[in-house]
Write a structure and sequence with these properties.
Layout lengths: L4 H22 L2 H7 L4 H7 L3 H24 L5 H18 L3 H21 L2 H18 L8 H17 L1 H8 L3 H23 L2
Helix pairs in contact: 1-2, 1-4, 2-3, 4-5, 4-7, 5-8, 5-10, 7-8, 8-10
Length: 202
Amino acid sequence: MKRDRNTEEKILHAAEEVFQQKGFDGARMQEIADHASINKGLLHYYFKTKHKLFEAIFKKSFNQIMFNIEGVVASEASLFDKLELFVDEYISLLLKNPSLPRFVFNEINTNADAFIEVYFKDKLIQNISALVRTVQKEVEEKRIKPIDPRQFLMNLMAMCVFPFLARPLLQVVLKQDNQQFTQLIQERKKHIVQFMRDALTP
């Protein structure tokens, strides 16, 4: 059987919606097939397992965010301009695919070397290296306070990812329904950038 690009895109779109609603563990292939208006056999022809399907969604989303930020990260823009773009793109991606953080951490914990080799080795490392150089340059020119670029990266990633990993707990503690939590995370984009600016500006 010849693979049809439109059918594949329809499956990916349906899977994104089901994964977003149910999470990776709660999603079922039959439900994804129903959502895509195809039979389960055809779904398994395109993607043999739920893991392979989610992997395809991750790859598509990851490539999209890398395409969106790589030019700016490598540019001569200021650190905070780059930071604003990165935070906006990254959190928008996670809002669209809230199951991604758990999937990524599960994969890393299972086989970190293989996962990094497949997804992160080239584009992500290049972009991280460019961001590190920007931090180092800003420190050397005394435009920001001295900071270890490694600590900068860990701070940035933690502030973006933690709310998604802890979402069930945060929604209970903060008394936020899904719509309110999404709005809170949208507001967080500006908060993260401002927080970093306040912490690093001399």
